[in-house]
Amino acid sequence: MTTKFNLDTPVGNLLETVTRFSGWYIPNHGDRPRLKIECNGKLEAAMEWGSLRPDVCAVYPGDPQAIISEFQSDLLYGNDDRNREINVSIVDESHQEGELFKRTYRVQPFNLRTMRPRLFEIFDLVVCSECHSPLSRTGQEIACVECGTRIPLRGEAPHFLCEGGTPCLRLTERTSTHPYSSEVLEILDRNQDNLILDFGAGHASRELLRPNVVYMDAVQYQWTDVVCTRLRLPFRDHLFSAVVSQAVFEHLPDPHHTAKELFRILQPGGIIHVDTAFMQPLHGDPWHFFNMTQHGLRQVMAPFEEIRSGVKSYQFPSAGLMMQFEAILPFLSSRKWRKQVKAWHTQCQQGAEELDRSLGEVGRKTLAAGFYFEGRRPH
Asked: What 3 state SS string does 33-84 have?
């Protein structure tokens, strides 16, 4: 059976220090693939798969996976790789599909981007995520002094990954994560001299970066300080004065456990602020697990004393409804329904404020796109 695969970038045979590998792939086995990049036979990075590709769907209209066939990941090279020829392969580890692509590249001289200003040294904050023992660093190698767990490094960011995990890099990402809400900005402004954790920070704009904030995510973006996919967080107890987290908790496999971990690393009296999805379609595919009602979010955050919770203006029902319309459109093959949904989206967008106001407080909570919770760790 012919492999349906295409590499869009990079073009040519010369690689930068950080290079985006992207393209599309429709697996013959019909399941979600597990794509990885290998350099000279060694696993280097995991690839994200599942983004929309309407152009591929137009070519393969009978294949249900064509619409979500895009893959992407970055590759980062160390100093020892400068001016070297390397063999890069892309493999699908699912169903023993094996090697999909192989090419020999030449790597340009090492030129990693400058780190942002920080008021902390990341290796003073982290511990082994398995046994919470100190870590030992020698050059580009990190290991736990007690259990021997090894932690991969990409640039200066340690990757605390689930067993068998491979680093996923998006260092060349162009789009930025949503800006901080006014409630989060208030917390950041009150704690300018204290250590704060942005849990699930995504790709923040450079102008929004703060030197006292530790940016953590499951994927390494340009400004990510720590990458973690493990349930146990790799930080010392009572480390942070505040934790903020926007649009992350729906992507956690065990939000109750994560809330307890955030309680552990927060100082007594410290503040936590979380917002998460309710009436929203699948996003961040495939890692979207639990949408929550306000009662559900309160239950998850039960270890904390509630300060306030509810619906923010950008979580009103009109926002969730427009997300639904935007999610529906790429999958519609009917021109009639595409036209109708586009009209609904335009009408909802133009009348969003009126729609939300007419629903009233109870209607806005019943149909909210999401909810927020702000709490305090008891003294």
From this structure: CCEEEEECCEEEEECEEEECCHHHHHHCCCCCCHHHCEEEEEEECCHHHCCC
